[in-house]
Amino acid sequence: MQFSNVATFLSVIYIAFASRNVDALSGVLATRHAAHESGSCELPSASYAVQHPVALGDIDALQHLKYKPGMCGQVLSVDCGHGAMDIIVTNANLGGGLDLYASTWDRATGRKPPGQTSCSVNLSTRSAMNTSGPRCYYAPSSEKNNAWFKLLGVFNTNGRIPVGATLGEKSGSFNGLQPYFAFHGGPIAGNAQVVFQFSDGSNFSTSLENCIAENGKQMWS
User: Fold this and answer.
1) Is 193 inside any structural domain?
2) Is residue 216 in some structural domain?
């Protein structure tokens, strides 16, 4: 391949580099979050491969990574000046940036005193749980045996963001800030198919009977 001038060559190099780092954001505000809680995501109790939580905000610097229900349970790679580490979205921090829980803050900042810092952040394709592939879960606080109402979420999606879901012929919608889709009306058959749609156009389908009913909420600090 030949280039007519240096500017054209540099332009091609820049485009190629940018395409490989399209998700990387820098200069994102991070603060410290001191709490022991399940968070607004109310992730189900499970064996998690990623143990460091974050309350994700919606400031402009987060761009495509702003909090939305489908970001719950997603893994982010963050670097606040002490090396990259993986963190998991467990809560919302509306109006703010990355609100790092104490365990996350200490490792990400080298035990910097509480305050503010600046980090780079990227969406990771790492599995959040110690298992492979997506898993359908009932919301921990929902009624599992109610044939007329279901709250279902999908996790361990390796960076794919859920944006929609159907249960049989019914369409679900996010239950407030939570990552669970609400399905109303019935009766709903126990072998109905649940199909989760992701922002990249792909989907994950499973039978309702395969969705995991876990009563406990995962606690984070």
Assistant:
1) yes
2) no
